[in-house]
Amino acid sequence: MHANLLLDHLPARELRRLLPIGSPMQLRSGQSIALQSQPCRCVLFPLEGCICLLTQPEHRAPLQLGMVGCEGAVGAQLLLGMDLSPVGAVVQEGGEAWSLTASALRRTLPVSPGLRRMLARYLMVQMRAVVTMASCLHFHSLRSRLARCLLMGSDRTDVGDFAVTHEVLAQRLGVRRVGVMVAAGSLQNAGLIQYQRGRVTVLNRDGLEAAACSCYGLDQSSYLQGMRFASAALPRR
Questions:
Q1: What's the predicted TM-score (pTM) here?
Q2: What residue ranges define each of the domains in the chain, with the CATH number in brackets?
Q3: What is the DSSP track for 161-225?
Q4: What is the tens place of the pLDDT at every residue in 155-203?
Q5: Cβ burial 120-139 (10 Å sphere, 16+ → b, else e)
Q6: Which residue in 100, 88, 95 sits closest to 48, CA to CA?
C-alpha cells in the first residue's frame, strides 16, 4: 500500500487499531468526492493520485482552492463535528485512498489522540493555504499562478506527467481559456513543461519553481511547520 503522510506519522499502536476499521477506495479521474455545503460521509486519506478542492461562485465555473494528495486528507472537518463539506472535491488524477466513515471516525477519536492531533494540525495548514490562495489570486500573474498549479499537480502524482486540459485549468484559475493557453505556451517555450494531448510533463523542475509565485514555497514551509514534519516528508517528483 502506498503511504499517506498523515497515517504514516501516527503512533504505531493507533495505526494498527485504525486500519482494520477503514477500507481502500479507488479514485477515478473526474470523480466527485464531496459537494460543497453537502453532508460529508467519510474522511479520505489519498495514497496515490490527486484531488482538487473547489468552491462554486454564483453563476461561475468552480474555482480551485487547493489540492490534496498523499500529504493530506479530504473531510478533516469531521474532527470538529462538522458534517457539511466546506468545499467541493473532484479527483484530478486517479489512484487509491484509504477511507474512514464519519461514524467510525467519531468512535475512534476518543482513543486516538495522535489522529486528533494530526487532523487538527492539517486543518490549520489548510486554513493557511486558503489565505495564501486569496492573496495569490489578487496579486500574482497568471503565468506564475499556473506554474504553481502545475507544480502542485506534479507533486501529487506517481508518474512524470498528469492529465489536465486548458479548459479545466482556466476554470480552476478563474481566468479565460485563452489566457491559460498563452501562459502555458510561455512555460513550454521556455522548456519548463511539455503540454500535449491534455497531459502536462514537467521538464525542468527548478525552472518551473523559479517561474512560480512565492506562494508555492510558502505552502511548502507552512505545511512542514504546521505538521511538524521533516522536510524530506514532502512529496516531490
A1: 0.91
A2: 5-137+219-233 (2.60.120.10), 138-215 (1.10.10.10)
A3: EEE--HHHHHHHHTS-HHHHHHHHHHHHHTTSEEEETTEEEES-HHHHHHHS-THHHHHHHHHHH
A4: 888 666 888 899 989 988 989 999 999 999 999 999 999 998 888 999 9
A5: ebbbebbebbeebbeebbee
A6: 95
